[in-house]
Amino acid sequence: MTHLLLALAALAPSGDVGDDLILFKAPVQLMAGNAELGRRKMYPSPAAFDVDGDGTQDLVLGGLSGRVTWSRRTADGLSPEKPMERTDGKQLSFNNW
Amino acid sequence: MGSQFVDLNADGHLDYLSATFDGSPHVSWGGDAGFAEPVRLVDGAGERLLVSSYWDYDEEAHLTTGRAMPDGKPANLRGISAVAMDWDGDGDLDLLQGSYEKGHLFVQMNEGSPSEPRFTGKNVRVMAGGVPLEDKAKMTAPRLVDWDADGDLDLVYGTFGGPNGIAGVYLLINQGQDGAPSFAAPRTLLQVRGEELPTSPVGPVEGLYPEVTDWDKDGDLDLIVGGYSRWRAEAPTLDAEQTTELARLRALHEAASSASDKLSEAFREKLDSEEERAKTDEEKEAAWDRVYGEFKDRMDAARKARNELQGQIDEFDPPKKRTPAVWFFERG
Q1: Rounded to whole angstroms, how far apart are CA atoms B155 and B135?
Q2: How many angstroms separate the most distant Cα atoms in chain B?
Q3: B1, B5, B26 ranked by CB distance to A49: nearest
Q4: Distance from A51 to chain B by nearest Cα, in Å?
Q5: Per-residue pLDDT for B85 more than 80?
Q6: Measured between alpha carbons, how far is residue B131 from residues A58, B104, B135, B185 in Å?
Q7: Cα–Cα distance between B22 and B78 in angstroms, integer?
Q8: CB atoms closer than 10 angstroms to residue B46
Q9: Sequence-ordered list of residues with C-beta below 8 angstroms from that of B86, at least 6 positions apart, any chain
Q10: CA distance B55 to B63
Q11: Nearest to B243 by CA among B313, B192, B148
Q12: What residues pair up with B151 in beta bridges, in sequence order?
């Protein structure tokens, strides 16, 4: 088995961060409860945001459908994904065509 | 859709800014009680913000306009991402839009006030390294972050990859001054080399949507990346008996597929013939109900039989998978 990901930096002609490589460790798939985060999304797009105001960044998840979910971050990890609610109690959803 | 939590109307509450494949930025205004139903952002003339291609809800068609383009000409460029920053340093938030096609990035000025944004409706190309930013691997969404901790906002964006190029995540360092950002040429943060299928979803290879944050709280910036992995579970080594069984299952699957297809064809033929005889819309609807009712159980059973056989085949010969997920990339 070969790892698909090559986490490396191209040489920059110049830059405040210099020409050093910017390296990341091998990716770790995030779980939300017992399920893979984003597994029901098309093109999951994460954003770190403290949804419940407890001082810890949670993960908000957008996707192609525009329907937004989030997963609460606790000391034990990420909680199961659930719909992000609007003020009227409906799921926050951005119109798509 | 990308997501940005930003106080777009300076009321002390973070708003949720996004854009979708309908081609326009949307905002869900934040308040004491949370986020409201999203609305589309409009320019000073009341027209929806966009790049060029968009879905027209009235016409129910994909249309293209040049009204927001720098040269006034329509182009096959659909804005599918939006983030806000104070580009010109005048205290209000301007808007960046990224296009799916060609991975262009545009900025549009806010001529209103911090509390009452009024966008010009005209986009200007964002430059990187002295040339207009372009990425043939198609842009997912940009993020704004002070990567190098010098007090200004840098840009990170992801790409879709696929037939047009390798998917990746890129960094544009802002080398400009307050009110006059100037981005260096893109540096690669992640790039995907997907020549060989792994046996598990080890990482994203398509549709890389990045978030940049210190996720592990160790003082440096990590990446959280949503996307698709391509993989195929390790195929078991089959003995002679299992090989024979696999051949038997494949033959059964072929027969089941053929039976299912024939049933669907018979359904379609009968429906066409009955609909032809129908004189009104009500009669057509009744014909559909009648014919569908006649075929439904048999078609469902045929599909189920075919899918069950496919499941058994997959155990011997695992299929290629393309699955969505989210990964944490710790800064090394």
Answers
A1: 14
A2: 76
A3: B5
A4: 9
A5: yes
A6: 37, 11, 12, 8
A7: 8
A8: 7
A9: B92, B93, B94, B179
A10: 6
A11: B313
A12: none
Residue A23: phi and psi, rounded to 5, are -110, 145
- Quick check: B326 and A16 CB within 8 A? no
What pLDDT score was predicted for residue A5?
A: 41
- Other C-beta atoms closer than 10 Å to the C-beta of B166 total 17
User: Average pLDDT, whole number, for chain B?
Assistant: 95
* ipTM of predicted complex: 0.87
Cα B132 to Cα B185, B251, B264, distances in angstroms: 10, 56, 52
Give residue for tokens 């990446």: B223
Contact A22 B189 (CB under 8 A): yes
pLDDT digits (tens, 9 = 90+) for B27-51: 999 999 999 999 999 999 999 999 9
Q: Is A77 left (phi over 0), alpha (psi -120 to 50) or beta?
A: left
B185: nearest CA partner in chain A: A12
| Interface size between A and B, measured as CB pairs under 8 A | 225
List CB contacts (< 8 A) between A90 and chain B: 37
pLDDT profile of chain A (97 residues), mean per 10: 36 39 91 97 97 96 97 97 96 90
